[in-house]
Amino acid sequence: MLRKIVVSGYGEASARPNIAEVGLNITFIQPEANQAQELVAGVTQKLLAELLSLGIPNKDIETRNYSLFPHYQWEKNSRVFKGYQASNALLVKTGDLFLVTQIIDAAVKTGVKNIDYVNFTYEDKSALEQEALRKAAQNAVERAKAIAAGLGVKVGAVIRVSGNRRSYDSGYYILRESSSYQAERPENVIPPDKIKVTAEVEAVL
Question: Which of 50, 61, 79, 89 has the lowest tally of Cβ within 10 angstroms?
């Protein structure tokens, strides 16, 4: 009878973050749709100019989502039309991690009310994932050998292996906890020392 050993292996890879991402949301509600759109466009242009002065090129600024829709509020158990809401959700990237606080200041200065998040990440995520998977596979083989030694049998060739799970632990901070951003503004947003990727594989030997 063919004996099989089924084991899970775990691996981890880490690196210093080299990219900072700041999520900004420019939102206005006005009686007319074009009024809301004009306000959003005006703040967006001011923000782009401020970011350019910080040395952030347009290629590192992108719109993640743009929306325009009727805005309603509940009053006395009924929906009441209050105008139109226009929003421009921007993603700003920079390789200068300590520029984040200045990006936030520029956003607030130009009229951005919602600072959604700051994320510190690593540009080449695939390299970290591959390293973590490689370590997980090695760990699976080592664990299989230990089990086989305990049972007094030999480990055969790998019959099947699958990568079950990968998780990416980045430095992610949600800054918008309420409508009053100014009251919560951090003096400095400090990047984490390291970010890590963990992987799990299952091997049949």
Answer: 79
pLDDT at residue number 180: 42
Residue 64 and residue 114 in contact, taking contact as beta carbons nearer than 8 Å? no
91 phi/psi in degrees, rounded to 5: -120, 125
What global pTM score does this model have? 0.77
Q: One-letter amino acid identity for 197?
A: V
Q: Looking at 11-25, 136-150, 168-182, which range is the least confident one? A: 168-182
Q: Tell me which residue has tokens 């596979």.
A: 137
Out of 39-43, 116-120, 151-155, 168-172, give the one with best mean pLDDT. Answer: 39-43
* Contacts of range 40-45, beta carbons closer than 8 Å, 24 or more positions apart: 40/86, 40/87, 40/88, 43/110, 43/111, 43/112, 44/88, 44/90
Give the span between the Cα atoms of 136 and 119, in whole angstroms: 26
Beta strand 78-94 with 6-15 is unpaired
- Token readout for 58 is 């347009």
Contact 71, 82 (CB under 8 A): yes
Q: Tokens in use for 72?
A: 């309603």
Average pLDDT, the chain: 86
Within 54-195, residue ranges assigned H as helices are 100-109, 125-151
Task: Supply 17's token pair.
Answer: 């973050």
204 or 85: whose pLDDT is higher? 85
**Sheet of 195-204, strand order:** 6-15, 195-204, 160-169
How many residues would you count in the chain? Answer: 205
